[in-house]
């Protein structure tokens, strides 16, 4: 069965750790492609710092040189709160013969108990879990709550990159460089659009 990866994210902004975990999961799991899906509105985040359109544009620029990477506008076009279960259900209905792999950092997976219809999601998707430096996942607690995860997930150790969008926004606000932390085209877009200055 063909396997396709999904990297959902706020991508505010997208950075090299996103690209690196997507590529790692692609190779380790033999994914035919990784679909990047920027959220319209992340359910657990109070605030976004650029528009959905700008985050989508940065995502397109970031993945342009990798033929195995694609961008889906499914959440941006649906608008409103972006529940992953809605996205997976739609993709699954459209292409039931694909094995869908959600690529998630360990920090994000730790919030799974608070995701909408999490128990159903675990039945529909597989999970590629990437270790995030400085973040210890309580794996046994999660397995206790979602036993199906044991058979439907793979934990991948690397690459370990201590980089976050939060840190990038702080750097930009402080006038510090983000070159070599995000693709050049993304750095140029951020500068042109004057993002993350306030
Ligand atoms: N450095 C990293 N290592 C592993 N996973 C990461 C890393 N950065 C982001 N991810 C994962 O990528 C996905 C999308 O992340 P997101 O767009 O929220 O970026 P972020 O850097 O975590 O943003 P913010 O700092 O604004 O919360 C999530 O599953 C997150 O766990
Ligand atoms: O469906 C939910 O309730 C839900 C709650 C929190 C996060 N998510 C998804 O998890 C992905 C990573 O989120 P984030 O915060 O790291 O950008 C992104 O696709 C979010 O929409 C989904």
UniProtKB/TrEMBL annotation:
Pathway: Cofactor biosynthesis; NAD(+) biosynthesis; deamido-NAD(+) from nicotinate D-ribonucleotide: step 1/1. Residues 6-171 form the Cytidyltransferase-like domain. It catalyses: nicotinate beta-D-ribonucleotide + ATP + H(+) = deamido-NAD(+) + diphosphate. Keywords: ATP-binding, NAD, Nucleotide-binding, Nucleotidyltransferase, Pyridine nucleotide biosynthesis, Transferase. The keyword Metal-binding does not apply. Its EC number is 2.7.7.18. SUPFAM superfamilies: Nucleotidylyl transferase (SSF52374). GO terms for molecular function: nucleotidyltransferase activity. Pfam families: CTP_transf_like (PF01467). Catalyzes the reversible adenylation of nicotinate mononucleotide (NaMN) to nicotinic acid adenine dinucleotide (NaAD). HAMAP family: NaMN_adenylyltr (MF_00244). Belongs to the NadD family. This is Probable nicotinate-nucleotide adenylyltransferase. The lineage of its organism: Bacteria, Bacillati, Chloroflexota, Chloroflexia, Herpetosiphonales. The gene is nadD.
